[in-house]
Amino acid sequence: MKTISATTASKEFGRFLDAAQREPVLLTKKDRPVAVTVSVADWEELTALRIERGITEGLADAAAGRAAELTDAALEQRLARFRGRSAEQ
């Protein structure tokens, strides 16, 4: 993975974008990693993989009995707890 400082990325933005199309680019600020930039195609692939993993885990939970139907009443209870926590903050 290519590494580039935020200052260099700012000064040479076109080159930075071109590099991100070929491979992920690690951005650093004061020699610390702060972000990774990827191409749109890589982002779409990563997003699809995350969705697929979530579906697979959800199906496994359902098959193992770790899922329950979310009724209107249960949803209202969860919303009430959430609203109560939000009011406390």
UniProtKB/TrEMBL annotation:
Belongs to the phD/YefM antitoxin family. Antitoxin component of a type II toxin-antitoxin (TA) system. Pfam families: PhdYeFM_antitox. SUPFAM superfamilies: YefM-like. Gene3D superfamilies: YefM-like domain (3.40.1620.10). InterPro entries: Antitoxin_Phd/YefM, YefM-like_sf. It comes from Pararhodobacter marinus. The lineage of its organism: Bacteria, Pseudomonadati, Pseudomonadota, Alphaproteobacteria, Rhodobacterales. This is Antitoxin.
